[in-house]
Design goal:
Length: about 500
């Protein structure tokens, strides 16, 4: 009954019996019948099965010492290999399904949790036992040597002899390829994230909060992190932008950008928000500010809105002395500048009351446009030529024409005269006569060391002047007071050289 022949005959049945659970669990996992956490369930079942088989293997060794059960030893190798089979499945589930081959996390898990550490080391020592259990290997090694490897006492001795060599630092370095200079910090800090350890070693970081901040913001050193926090910046790019554009801190820059300003528009933001904080700055009003002159932005402080200032200037351009109030309201609503429309005549009359020196709302729905004592419409120049000493002092024909066009808010003539004035200043500085050819843009770029942005703006100024003067089809660029002001500023800079 307990003969070796009978035990050998029953091997196929034992093989199927031990193999069947793994096939069943695989089927249940695929079909979703392993509960709410199928990965954890599968991993637990495989691990428990491996442990049971290891215990059975050890029991077989002990039972074989009983004379009547001596032949049971024929099962030991097969049961032992199946134990290794289930250990491999358990370990593969842990690495692939549970942690998706996240090596850094797996290292951290192995080093932090003792039972996983022990399991991992045990798995390593099961490998030589499994790999030397084939008939071919046994024949090569010789039965006596193989017997020593498979003997429990000998195995314990072998493990004990090699344990001093299997240290955490060696595992990190040899198994997981962690550079030696990072191994000790990893073990000391119990932090197995190589990226974080590099930051600690190279960047001088001392706590996890700073490390997390650095990783999220793209910082390399604790010095940069401290500087960023002082400036209320969250990223490296943000800190560079704050420093380059001379913002007070990251909060101010982010506030400006939420309104619609660019990170390089610190000056424009200051001019608009500090002097005109009564204006609701949004995308449209900011675009208007970009295309306006400094004088216009400074004048804005005296008005309730951008549209009210533009309408005030419009009143000095009309030919009529008397308007129907509802018609004048229509003209107000036609202005292509930021500002809400007014649909009630009563509200519009209240709006006009802020211009008592210019309009007088009479009875019968009429509005009178007031003139000065001389009968001349009041004109408020967009650009005051008195702000430019060179123009103010000059008595040339060109300077007189330029002053007149500025005083009358004649944009077309001002575009022509301001560009001609700039050309004259460049010729005078370089000593070039009117007959000699002059590349005005290139000359200004060289004399004033203009940036690409400034040079591009001068090109557009030239194209706007050409369109006004000749209607050249190079590219239509509408004239702008911004271009006029830019020409005048460049002229003053050249005259001061």
């Amino acid at each position: 009954m307990f003969s070796a022949r009978n035990f050998n005959r029953s091997k196929p049945f034992l093989f199927i019996l031990i193999l069947f659970p793994s096939l069943l669990w695989a089927y249940q996992f695929v079909t979703g019948n392993l509960g709410v956490n199928p990965i954890e369930k599968l991993m637990d079942e495989l691990g428990l099965m491996a442990l049971r088989l290891i215990i059975v293997t050890l029991m077989i060794t002990s039972l074989s010492n009983i004379k009547i059960l001596k032949s049971i030893v024929v099962f030991r190798r097969m049961v032992g290999l199946f134990a290794f089979y289930y250990v491999c499945l358990h370990f593969s589930t842990y690495i692939v399904l549970d942690h998706f081959l996240d090596i850094q996390f797996i290292i951290q898990d192995i080093m932090k949790r003792p039972f996983i550490t022990f399991g991992f080391i045990s798995f390593i020592f099961l490998i030589p036992l499994a790999s030397t259990s084939t008939n071919k290997i046994i024949k090569k090694l010789g039965f006596k040597l193989w017997k020593k490897i498979g003997n429990r006492d000998q195995l314990q001795t072998l493990i004990a002899g090699h344990m001093p060599q299997i240290t955490p630092d060696r595992i990190l370095n040899k198994v997981f390829s962690v550079p030696k200079k990072y191994v000790k910090p990893m073990l000391d800090l119990k932090n197995y994230n190589l990226t974080e350890i590099k930051l600690i070693v190279k960047g001088g970081f001392e706590n996890q909060e700073d490390i997390d901040f650095a990783q999220q913001g793209g910082f390399d050193t604790i010095k940069d992190v401290r500087k960023a926090r002082k400036l209320f910046c969250n990223t490296w790019e943000e800190m560079i932008a704050v420093q380059t554009n001379e913002w007070e801190d990251g909060n101010e820059m982010r506030h400006a950008m939420r309104q619609g300003f660019f990170e390089n528009e610190k000056d424009l933001f200051t001019l608009t928000t500090e002097k005109n904080n009564h204006i609701k700055w949004n995308k449209q009003s900011i675009i208007w500010a970009r295309n306006s002159t400094k004088d216009s932005l400074e004048r804005l402080t005296n008005f309730s809105s951008i549209k009210s200032m533009e309408f005030y200037d419009y009143l000095f351009t009309v030919e009529e002395d008397m308007f129907r109030t509802d018609r004048l309201m229509g003209e107000y609503n036609k202005l292509a500048v930021p500002g809400a429309k007014i649909t009630s005549e009563e509200k519009f009359e209240d709006f006009l009351s802020q211009f008592p020196d210019v309009v007088d709302v009479t009875n019968g729905g009429l509005t009178k446009i007031l003139l000065n004592s001389k009968g001349v419409k009041k004109i408020h120049p967009r650009i005051n030529f008195n702000s430019y000493p060179t123009i103010k002092k000059s008595r040339t024909k060109l300077s007189k024409s330029l002053k007149k066009s500025l005083a009358e808010n004649n944009l077309n003539e001002a575009s022509l005269d301001s560009y001609s004035w700039l050309t004259e200043q460049v010729r005078s500085h370089l000593g070039i006569s009117q007959k000699e050819e002059l590349q005005i843009v290139d000359s200004c770029k060289e004399l004033l060391d203009l940036s690409k942005r400034e040079t591009d703006k001068l090109h557009k100024t030239r194209m706007a002047r050409n369109w006004v003067g000749h209607k050249e089809a190079e590219q239509k660029v509408e004239p702008s007071w911004t271009y006029v002001e830019y020409c005048l500023n460049l002229s003053e800079r050249i005259s001061s050289l």
